[in-house]
Amino acid sequence: xxxxxxxxxxxxxxxxxxxxxxxxxxxxxxxxxxxxxxxxxxxxxxxxxxxxxxxxxxxxxxxxxxxxxxxxxxxxxxxxxxxxxxxxxxxxxxxxxxxxxxxxxxxxxxxxxxxxxxxxxxxxxxxxxxxxxxxxxxxxxxxxxxxxxxxxxxxxxxxxxxxxxxxxxxxxxxxxxxxxxxxxx
Length: 185
Known about the structure:
alpha+beta, Membrane-bound Lytic Murein Transglycosylase D, Chain A, Barwin-like endoglucanases, 2 domains, two-stranded antiparallel sheet, 6 helices
């Protein structure tokens, strides 16, 4: 019984003892675990640092993130480049539809292949993007609500309705220019 009382007293004293803290530079460092739907643009806005600062602090060469990836969030000024309006990119587009219709997108919305929406790897959800098919000049405006495409040579996946607007439903893929023209929550 005395041993039990002595052990209990020792544990109580240990719990009351001052704790060692990490050095100030370690305490100041914030670490964030990437969640589904996160983008560098969104994290930039959330934490008040620029996309370039996030890339530099984490050794990122592009803006692609993996769910579960741990990012160091540097201290910094308010972001200057979080708003992607004006962002332009050229590359290959493809489309998706029947196999995904009615399923949840990365943004949490239910995918509607008849809505003018698209998937992009990094643009914030709600980005309004003008997509111009370069070979024939046809254009459509879509809202980003999903992540993809998952083929390396593609920059955007359009819904069936958006693909039909520019004749992509027949051809499967085409070279396009995308430009972010706005954002809706």
